[in-house]
Amino acid sequence: MFDALSYDFVLRALVAGAVTGLAAPAIGTYLVQRRLSLLGDGIGHISVTGVALGLLTGTSPTWTAIAMAVLGAVVIEVIRATGKASGDVALALIFYGGIAGGLMLVSFAGNGAVRLNTYLFGSIVSISRADVWVTVILALVVIGLCVALMPQLFSVANDEDFARTTGLSVRFYNVLISVLAAVSVSVAMRTVGLLLVSALMVIPVATAQQFARGFRVTMLSAMAAGLLASVIGVGTSAYVDVPPGATIVLVALAGFAVTAPVGLVLQRRRTARVPFDLTAEPEPHRVEEAHRHRHGPGCGHVGVEHGDHIDYIHNGHRHAVHGGHYDEH
Amino acid sequence: MSVVEITGGGVSLGGRPILRDIGLRVEQGEVVALLGANGSGKSTLVKAAVGLLPLSAGTARLFGEPVADFGAWDRIGYVPQRSTITQGVPATVREVVAAGRLARRRPFLPATAADRRAVTEALESVGLADRAQQTVSTLSGGQQQRVLMARTLAGGPELLLLDEPLAGVDLISQHAMADALEARARAGATIVVVLHELGPFEPLIGRTVVLREGRVVYDGAPTGLLGLSHDVHCEPVEQAAAVVPPLRGPLGEEG
Predict the structure, then answer these.
(1) A215, A34 Cβ separation under 8 angstroms
(2) What was the ipTM of the complex prediction?
């Protein structure tokens, strides 16, 4: 049985977990769209230095972590946007510099190392009342912007060049996505922990896009999946002595594993609707013999695109031009 | 006032000059085909015209405004040659096409009835109304190209710039796109379209500009090119095998 105190901390952890479970996949959907699935991981590494700075100087690690995370996210976005060939390596340098710097700083902070652990892997007993408020407010900001600016953020993430020709400031929205990702990392570090935060941004999205047909549905389903994983993970962690971060991520992965077969069937059914399966092995070379008719526009046969050429439907089978003859496709 | 005006335009990519001393004026209501061999700079010219690539020399104006200061993006409609719409998270056809309305929408405000109607009409005009809720990546290449065109048409632009909309596209889609463009042209839109061959767009085209190695080598009536696109497919079977139509005479082939 819980006494009043332990009931209180479970409640705080559940609230923090719930808003985290909603916010992380919301911004994660844009990261997956932009093929930056691992950005959250990088920002998490950088935040370690922020947390260590807070522990060392005695200020709130939440705020120092947010400051470092936002700074790191903007630097990463600038490196990405300038498109330097060495950008990939530059990012690695920043990530490892962040985590090594944090570990070094925290070693000066006496018992800081123990407290750092609660930020690295999440801990539901260390969340104070003030922490919950900060977490809820920041999470609501992230969720609010991710949903309210969905048309603009989607367009920029979906096709940057086109978005530019509709007058959208691509740079502004890209930086916004990075900053929101940084804020959600700081939000998530109390429950999931800095080292596993990226998982909560990506796994629910991966689960959702197995069966969702559109972007909006993917995002909303991912948020639902994230909420479920977070609440189950934190709840389990309150009853059994297991770290919340690992539990949340394992629950999220279990959700993916359970829905994977459904997704596979749906995917098959969808590919069947694509005019031609271009991934299939081409049939052995079969030449249509003695073909007098020349296929072309207006030749009376229906033309269908097939990879880089056009096949013509001829008596129920497909003809493709090859050299001086037609192949059967 | 010209709709598109490029004077002494030069573009360099990675230090290599792609366009040199380009002069191009397109007046309101014109339908212009940009032709030329691969690598002649057609796509680069269109991108420079809408400000996606910076000019290294000369000036580019849209509706009389320098491109760098241009703000009336609802008047412009760009259709890219390749797009990233099928990558990453799945998106429905309707979601992609709705992005074409953003020049007319403000952040934080929901789509109006007019926005939704414009998206529906754009989908109908390219014959994809029944695919609105389908995932874009499950469409054929030609249908995806039609989605790109619908996205641009949804914005109701006065100037359309299309970069090779027919490349690798099936005949059904080619004709669907030609019909949609014809409707826009009749409504008074100005159209600049990059093409390899005139194809089903031929009746629309009022003027052709041919590029060769980054320079304009022909600018005038398409008469000199008429029939070329048809010949390619109607010639004996042996020659039809050449997928890329040979470009001769004013099109910039040697000899």
Answers:
(1) no
(2) 0.87
